[in-house]
């Protein structure tokens, strides 16, 4: 994955990620008692929700910091470290669930991700996932591109934000048949008191890597000022999220 997490800050101030993810759970149609892998489980909040629905849950994440939080919060759930593009699973799962993860995996690794998901599912098992879709947070990325360009810098787009056609093609060529797919706008309010600068500092780290702190601060201040009329409503910042939500069956 192309991001390092501040797990404590994420848990305390960006809980909207897993709160919105609870709605994705409704796509799971396996019966209680089914084996479910929460792939990219983060702090384990949705793993716990899956457990409360009666599933036999395992959580997997690449971040040791996130796993430490998950194990502390939910000691009765099994959490393990694993790379979503390389993992294996025994016994195989009835369902692989994932929320707000796949857009952090580089485009050229999406086929490897789909292959390993298919291999880790029972025949007829399902993938249920949601993540960033085409033009997610586009206002923020376009503004940062402009701020970088004005300083002679290149703003590297690093997320995988596909269309439905692009993503379902990945699944289909790797043994997974989509039976539900939707792309939709989901304007996402930030926690009270948090601005677009806090959002960028959490989710847009890679383009700033190696940059002097003074220059970074200037860019962030400028981006916040320019984005305020569009994304700040009545003192609350709302990021222009777009999500793709998919269910697919293993052939």
Automatic annotation (TrEMBL):
Residue stretches making up the Methyltransferase domain: 36-125
Say if the entry is tagged with keyword Cytoplasm: no
> Cross-referenced InterPro entries, in alphabetical order?
Methyltransf_25 (IPR041698), SAM-dependent_MTases_sf (IPR029063)
Q: Which residues form the signal peptide?
A: none
Query: What GO terms in the biological process aspect are recorded for it?
Result: methylation
The molecular function terms of the Gene Ontology recorded here are:
methyltransferase activity
- Which terms are listed as keywords in the entry? Methyltransferase, Transferase
Recorded superkingdom: Bacteria
The cross-references to PANTHER family, in alphabetical order and at most eight, read:
TRANS-ACONITATE 2-METHYLTRANSFERASE, TRANS-ACONITATE 2-METHYLTRANSFERASE-RELATED
What is the official name of this protein in its record?
Trans-aconitate methyltransferase
What is the source species? Succiniclasticum ruminis DSM 9236
């Amino acid at each position: 994955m192309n991001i390092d997490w501040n797990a404590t800050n994420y848990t305390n101030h960006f809980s909207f990620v897993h709160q919105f993810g609870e709605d994705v759970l409704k796509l799971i149609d396996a019966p209680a008692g089914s084996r479910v892998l929460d792939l990219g489980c983060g702090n384990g909040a949705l793993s716990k929700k899956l457990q409360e629905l009666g599933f036999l849950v395992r959580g997997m994440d690449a971040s040791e910091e996130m796993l430490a939080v998950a194990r502390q919060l939910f000691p009765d759930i099994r959490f393990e470290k694993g790379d979503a593009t390389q993992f294996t699973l025994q016994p195989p799962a009835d369902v692989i669930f994932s929320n707000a993860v796949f857009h952090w995996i580089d485009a050229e690794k999406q086929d490897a991700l789909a292959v390993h998901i298919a291999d880790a599912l029972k025949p007829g098992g399902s993938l249920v996932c949601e993540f960033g879709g085409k033009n997610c947070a586009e206002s923020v990325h376009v503004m940062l591109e402009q701020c970088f360009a004005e300083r002679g810098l290149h703003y590297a787009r690093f997320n995988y934000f596909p269309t439905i056609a692009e993503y379902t093609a990945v699944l289909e060529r790797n043994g997974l048949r989509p039976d539900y797919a939707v792309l939709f706008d989901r304007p996402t309010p930030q926690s009270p008191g948090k601005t677009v600068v806090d959002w960028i500092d959490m989710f847009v780290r890679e383009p700033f890597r190696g940059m002097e702190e003074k220059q970074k601060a200037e860019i962030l201040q400028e981006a916040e000022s320019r984005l305020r009329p569009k994304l700040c409503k009545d003192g609350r910042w709302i990021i222009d999220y777009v999500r793709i939500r998919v269910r697919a069956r293993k052939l």
